[in-house]
């Protein structure tokens, strides 16, 4: 029947996959969160960028190993589903999907807020509209989404390189002293914040069945995207601190644009502000892309309603899952300010990463095509670092996450019970 086939087409190249990773990683973290991280770490934010990157590499290696062995649509969900059990896999997919939908809605508000600085727009309506716009782009075809993402990524990277190229001549070395005004604890707090900004690499794994040579390109694209992002974060942070000093940088909500304002370069300030909008837009685009593939995979495994697996006969995209994802993000973005649940989204993501690192340890090593260097140290460190970050979050976050988890358990057993009753009738 038309629209019910579930065959995905491999159109994503290695370049496209790296671009998707960059689209997911280089977003509000560098354009907004840098100021907050600097308030914690001072000029030592440069070390925080490196430490956060190293911690992210531990988990990225686990994603790379499992992605080469299980190159299936759904990424983190499929890894836990196959290595541990279907029930644990379902809860992983449930929690990860919840977190990413919240991320998408929150990011859309950030996009609308940045846009409002350039032109007067109603933030809630624009935020919801952005979700719907990128939902439509995702619907048309995965290649169309990739092309749009490539354009967004190219612009924001060029904007950042322009920022560095112009700003490097205005750096004052005195702005790097004292290096750690808040001591070691400030350095680690800054690293934890930067680590959250790196977590987008998991979206690359979610589109495995639409990628050319996934066994090779998944680990390569994940590590390249993360490596490039770390370098960009480092040189941009160095330039921003060198221009403004940590006290002014930490007080800024748009640190890069303000740095250009200090040196009096208004054209580049405008380009950097536009780059921030493009950066946040690419995060939203890849969020819808990733979430829709997780729900598609869960439906294909009969853990959520089967109609979600439908592929559009003309566009070749899982259109039902894309529409559901886009609408949920749009509604969530419209109903209010989501800043209070940003940490909930972070908790959802890092908790599932604990399971991915566990799966990298538990998986059958004889079948591996990509092996983690110095195994099992990186995945063990990945578990420890992610668990430590989860424990550092407020108690209220744990309560909300527990409610989400319980809702998933209730849905899982209710849906499975309904399926069994249907089989008995047949």
Model description:
It contains 17 helices and no strands. With about 425 residues, it is mainly alpha-helical. The chain has one domain: Up-down Bundle (Amino acid/polyamine transporter I). The protein starts with 13 loop residues before the first helix and ends with a helix. The model has no long low-confidence stretch (mean pLDDT about 90).
What would the principal axes of the Cα set say about the shape? globular
Number of strands: 0
CATH topology tier name: Amino acid/polyamine transporter I
Helix % is: over 70%
Uncertain regions: pLDDT < 50 for 5+ in a row? none
Largest sheet: none
CATH architecture descriptor name: Up-down Bundle
Oligomer: single chain
Q: What's the pLDDT, averaged over the residues?
A: 89
Q: Please write the string of helix (H) and strand (E) elements.
A: HHHHHHHHHHHHHHHHH
Helix/strand/pairing category: mainly alpha
CATH superfamily: Amino acid/polyamine transporter I
What is the terminal separation in angstroms? 22 Å
Radius of gyration from the alpha-carbon trace, in angstroms: 21 Å
Number of alpha- plus pi-helical segments:
17
CATH top-level class: Mainly Alpha
Strand content: under 5%
